[in-house]
Write a structure and sequence with these properties.
The longest helix is centred in the N-terminal third of the chain and has 57 residues. The chain is built from 3 helices and 7 strands. Helix content is 52%, strand content 28%. The chain has 169 residues and is of the alpha+beta class. α1 runs antiparallel to α3. It has a 5-stranded antiparallel β-sheet with strand order 4-3-7-6-5, covered by helices on one side. A two-stranded antiparallel sheet has the order 1-2.
């Protein structure tokens, strides 16, 4: 009996020594896996948004009264067709005058991606600039972050489950 008790004591001590490093390795693995899964998803969302802004910019033309957006209503419906996220867009002259889109959606005269807020909800915005009739026109497309949040939550839930199983094993 003394021998068995000694073995259990050694096993307990080994387990105590290993639990900390195992948890640290599992947490580091989970963090790395999260980054490897989440970063490409973010880039894909941003690329889709950027492509939408560039497509809209390609439809800006010089009209008789200045720049205009030549976009069929079906194309606008396709742009806004998303059951999860709300989509906003605006085409504005350099002085801020609205050419087309959502009047309450402001466009900054910058090109690229940024985080912002629209109608009280966080959004991701892609902005492009184009010249029409000698004027600079800024085009911005924004989407809410609902779908991104759903994917982030699903990724975290899967990681917690997998890492929990690894830790228990």
């Amino acid at each position: 009996h003394a021998r068995t008790g000694g073995m259990n004591s050694i096993r307990l001590r080994l387990l105590k020594w290993l639990v900390g490093p195992i948890l640290v390795v599992n947490l580091a693995g989970a963090a790395l896996t999260y980054l490897l899964a989440w970063t490409p998803a973010q880039l894909a969302f941003d690329q889709g948004l950027s492509d939408a802004a560039l497509v809209l910019a390609a439809h800006v033309q010089d009209g008789q009264q200045g720049p205009l957006l030549d976009l069929p209503s079906q194309a606008e419906q396709v742009l806004r067709a998303d059951r999860v996220d709300a989509t906003y867009f605006a085409v504005r002259k350099a002085d801020g005058t609205l050419v087309a889109g959502d009047a309450d959606f402001q466009v900054l005269p910058t090109t690229g991606m940024r985080d912002a807020s629209a109608r009280g909800e966080p959004v991701r915005v892609a902005t492009a600039s184009v010249s029409a009739g000698g004027e600079t026109v800024h085009v911005a497309v924004a989407k809410t972050l609902r779908k991104r949040a759903q994917i982030r939550s699903a990724t975290i839930r899967a990681l917690v489950l997998v890492e929990g199983l690894f830790t228990l094993a």
